[in-house]
Amino acid sequence: MVGKKITEVRQADKAGVDYAVEVLRGGGLVAIPTETVYGLAARADCDPAIARIYAAKGRPSFNPLIVHVASVEQAMDFAEMDEAVVAFARKVWPGPVTLVLPRKADAKLAAAVTAGLGSVALRIPGHDIAREILMRLGIPLAAPSANASGFTSPTTPAHVLATLEDKVDLVLDAGPCERGVESTILKYLGEGQWQTLRAGPLAAPDGGSLASIGEQPHQIEAPGQMASHYSPGKPVRLAALSPEPGEFMIGFGEVAGDCTLSAAGDLDEAARQLYACLHLAAASAKPRVAIAPVPATGIGVAINDRLRRAAA
Ligand code: AMP
Ligand code: MG
User: Fold this and answer.
1) Quick one: which of 70, 107, 112 has its CA closest to 223?
2) Residue in 36, 37, 57, 66 to alter for ligand 1 test, most ligand atoms within 8 A of Cβ
């Protein structure tokens, strides 16, 4: 079509990564693989690039972005980090955990990244390709999920194209995401205390006490923890044991469906399959969606959080 911008999709091989770094350095938008979901990445220090993220997603400007960094040292350029925070960051990074910390007054970040807040959300992603890009670039990347605001998150390049085709310069294809749900977000309260702002995969690095953090009550404090999110664009009924007429059924365990989160009842598999099932439901001719109950333990807390908001 004349005048229509075509989104390129490239394999995340050496040439693909070289090209992604070049596009990002020039202020472009690249959908990059991470271990959680595909991120819509742009230079966090560049106002026009950040404006393009908000425009491409149709994201409200009061909803701040997570800043992805290559190292703890780089994180310290942007956030006040006391010894306890540095130690904690070294324990959970790289990994699916975002830390909300006091922003340094002289942090070189586009103002829109933090939506005018005195805090900044930081993470080192646990995905080799994402980290390689960050290291080669030497500049942090703001990267919300690579989907239109409010819609189901992407865990494959096809999911990215479903809502962002021709709004993004490049999609870097490294196959499906390993974790499948967004990072756990923890806010630092001082004196070694953390508050969970969003449930997520939160891998405890050594089976330590971190595993329980994702199970604390979900507190809505930061802007953007919106009730309606992740939606397949049609009504969703939760805790369904069988479909009613006109419902696309998403199963789990013994509850069968048009597709299943995990026939074996495995919660890690269910997290990986969650958004793929919601994308299938969105694309189905059936006007409504029903979803089997999923236990709210471990990563099931994050799955139930996303399902509740997909149904809101
Ligand atoms: P996402 O929609 O996955 O990009 O989630 C990003 C979320 O991180 C936002 O909706 C906020 O709730 C949270 N967040 C990002 N930056 C900040 C910040 N500076 N302060 C508090 N929360 C933040
Ligand atoms: Mg999102």
Assistant:
1) 112
2) 66
User: What number does the ligand 1 atom closest to the CA of 144 have?
Assistant: 4
Q: Do residues 261 and 277 lie in contact, with contact meaning Cβ atoms separated by under 8 Å?
A: yes
Q: Which residues of the chain have pLDDT under 50?
A: 1-3, 203-224
In the CATH scheme, what is the code of domain 8-212?
Answer: 3.90.870.10
Probe ligand 1: pick from 100, 147, 152, 181, max atoms within 8 Å of CB? 100
Here the contacts of 103-108 (C-beta below 8 Å, separation 24 or greater) are 103/78, 103/79, 104/77, 104/78, 104/79, 104/80, 107/77, 107/78, 107/79, 108/45, 108/77, 108/78
Domain segments of the chain as ranges = 8-212, 236-311
Instruction: State residue 196's pLDDT score.
Output: 87
Q: What is the pLDDT of residue 88?
A: 94
